[in-house]
Amino acid sequence: MPLTNLQVQNLKPSGRSLKVSDGAGLYLHLTPSGSKLWRMAYRYGGKQKTLAFGAYPAVSLAVARERRAAARQTLAAGKDPALEAKRARQNAELEAASSFNAIADEFLAKAEKEGRADATMAKKRWLLDMAREQFGDMPVREIQAADVLAALRLVEEQGNYETARRLRSTIGQVLRYAVATARAETDPTTALRGALIAPKVTHRAAIVDREEFGKLVRSIWSYSGSTETEVGLRLMALLYPRPGELRFATWGEFDIDNGCWTIPAARTKMRREHRKPLSGLAVEILRDFRTRRRTDGLLLPSLTSLLAPISENTLNLALRRLGYGKDEACSHGFRASASSILNESGLWSADAIEAELAHASGNEVRRAYHRASYWEERIRMAEWWSDEIQKSLRQSNTQTPSFATAAVPSKIGVLQYD
User: Fold this and answer.
1) φ and ψ at 29, to 5 degrees?
2) Which of 242, 274, 378, 380 is catalytic?
3) Beta strands 26-30; 18-23: pairing state
4) Co-location of 243 and 389 in the same domain
5) Residue 189: what pLDDT?
6) According to the model, what pLDDT value does residue 416 have?
7) What is the CATH number of the domain that holds 335?
8) Closest Cα to residue 416, out of 370, 382, 391, 383?
9) 125, 287, 359, 367: which is the annotated catalytic residue?
10) Has 335 been annotated as catalytic?
11) Are 100 and 184 in contact (CB under 8 A)?
12) Distance of CA 69 to CAs 36, 76, 106, Å?
């Protein structure tokens, strides 16, 4: 006789295993501990086999009967229900391992192992969370350009055009990783180039006129504030690194005797160690500053803690105090100033300038040239740039501190310019 819901519910353990039949191979296995497990007995290929449907009450009597009916249909088609169920589980596991969420997690883990900065990782996670909301559970091979575009349009509708552009790029990185690991065949984001609203480009404020830059230099050397801010401004003008590279610099990175600053890979934009030649003026500033340092750790510690660097706004606020608005100059703008003036001088190769700015080159061979072949030229270029700054200072009638106009060490190999 077929079972009833009440019978199933009222079954109690008796201290031994018990099988209660529902007919057509389906039965409820009652264990000594009281568990109620749905099973189906069947024959396939001349052998007696058993198929598990799950436990009651998670699997009701009605659901167990549905699964029995499906299994009988599989048998009628000449297939083994247990084997087909195993394949279904494997496919489900494969689908889960090939979902966008799973691939994104792998991609992020790989990026972390490659030493990407915490800030970079935080941005990638933030962007990918937007994509997860839209198609995170989808298998990557099923994601189409239209799926990605729908997610990007939601961002654009909020007016965040630059975020939408970055989101497309980051989704593309994940999907290309899926292609590289044989879990997808194409990256559909490539079809979306030109589909998004182009964000209005806002360039960082920079002074690129040579005469106006000279005025900025004179203002910087006349700045009166904390020693860390004074030194920070002067080194930005002399070395034009990325602001974060200087803010987090430590004394251990500077080889003052040999005139070299080595920025570790973890703090550079391209995650490659970057060496910068120090001009004689930069060396003298550092030597003088070292006699007055408050710590052997950070080069520019905060006024409130020797363990923390000056804030990201310190140098920009100093420029405001000097009378330069945020649309006129900023700490990052020294890079554009140097790039423009160095290129306009016609004295230096474009590759040497790009190498000094630590811009990414197209391939490993070119990067190798940046590291090696242009080093001597970059040393001469650093001295020329330092000499140009000192020329600007000599145009001022004000006295400058002794360390600002020191003689250049002969070992650097100074070139003389009129």
Assistant:
1) -95, 110
2) 242
3) antiparallel
4) yes
5) 93
6) 27
7) 1.10.443.10
8) 383
9) 359
10) yes
11) no
12) 20, 11, 40
Instruction: Kindly provide the b/e burial profile for residues 84-98, where b requires at least 16 CB atoms within 10 angstroms of the residue's own CB.
Output: bbeeeeeeeeeeeeb
Choose, from 168, 218, 234, 332, the residue flagged as catalytic. 332
Q: What is the pLDDT of residues 353-382, one digit of tens each?
A: 988 988 765 555 455 555 565 899 999 999
- Judge if 115 and 34 occupy the same domain: no
Residue 63 has pLDDT above 60, yes or no: yes
Given 335, 370, 378, 380, the catalytic residue: 335
What residues contact 24, with CB distance under 8 A and at least 6 apart?
68, 72
Residue 332 annotated among the catalytic residues of the structure:
yes
Known catalytic membership, residue 27: no
Does 56 qualify as catalytic in the annotation? no
Structural domain contains residue 179: yes
User: 139: how many CB neighbours lie within 10 A of its CB?
Assistant: 19
In-domain check, residue 158: yes
For residue 26, give the H/E element and its range: strand 26-30
pLDDT band for 84, please (50, 70, 90 cuts). confident
Q: What is the CATH number of the domain that holds 58?
A: 3.30.160.390
Residue 132: other Cβ atoms inside 10 A: 17
Catalytic hit among 44, 272, 369, 371: 369
Do 288 and 353 lie in a common domain? yes
| Spatial CA neighbour of 403 closest among 258, 286, 239 | 286
Q: What tens digit of pLDDT does each residue of 109-165 get?
A: 999 998 887 778 889 999 999 999 999 999 999 999 999 999 999 999 988 888 999
Q: Are 301 and 309 in contact (CB under 8 A)?
A: yes
Is 394 a member of any domain? yes
User: What is the residue range of 20's domain?
Assistant: 5-83
Distance CA 57, CA 36 (A): 8
- SS3 state at 41: strand
pLDDT value for 97: 74
pLDDT at 202: 56
Number of neighbours of residue 251 by Cβ within 10 angstroms: 15
- Peptide bond preceding 57: is omega within 30 degrees of 0, i.e. cis? yes
From 41, 48, 7, select the one nearest 26 (Cα to Cα): 41
What are the tens digits of pLDDT across the range 271-288? Answer: 788 899 999 999 999 999
Question: What does the CA dihedral 163, 166, 167, 171 come to, rounded to 10 degrees?
Answer: 180
